[in-house]
Design a protein that fits this description.
It is found in: Membrane. This protein is mainly alpha-helical. The chain is built from ten helices and three strands. It is globular and about 55 Å long.
Amino acid sequence: MFLPYGDTPNPRSTAYINWLLIGLNIAVFVGVTMPLMFARVDLSDPLLLDYLRSYGVRGLVSPQDVLQQVSAYDLFVFRYGFRPAAPSVVSLFSCMFLHGGWMHLAGNMLFLYIFGNNVEVRLGSLGYLLIYLVSGVAATLFFAVFVPGSQIPLVGASGAISGVLGCYFLWFPRNRVKTFIFLFPFLMTTVMLPARLVLGFYLILDNLLPFMLNGGGGAGVAHGAHIGGFLGGLGLAYGIDRCSWLRRFGW
């Protein structure tokens, strides 16, 4: 297991938007996700039938079976997660702030914590927020291109965060990433790795290869969204470097 947990050098100024995004994602999980995970689904919700059909349920289903298998959060995600077969502008943005569990949230927030501050200081608060949101939209749309008929909702901040990683890859080539290596029982150590090596590993081995092996689809991890977000952020960073008029705004 390879786990990044920090980078160097770090900016001296505080990345307020980065902390705000981390706090907002955690707040949504604690205030919305967790209560709904333990709440019963509303059997009168008209969206429930579409939800059951999307997961292959056909014919009559007893209310008891539904209550045992479906939580209020499942239906909430079905409504506000991004479904390529039923896209909406609201879900295009709301899906970025929903997570499927603590591990999903923790992994995303760790990467945002490590790589987001340098990018925000480089761009400024407003520019960073725009890059984050635009990358998230690009990631979601890239994912949807390969599964246009899917009713399975996409959730998570990883697409937007991948855009931040793309910016970091271009702008901070000399930075190094503190990485914990755990290969029990043979090896357990901490090393400093070049940022581009870590991010290249993330893009190619963690996402591009699984994406290609699964034919662009796959279940569980939205590799397409990660790739789309990373390429989107990389392209935006490259474009910013080439647009001299943006320098007037401190970019």
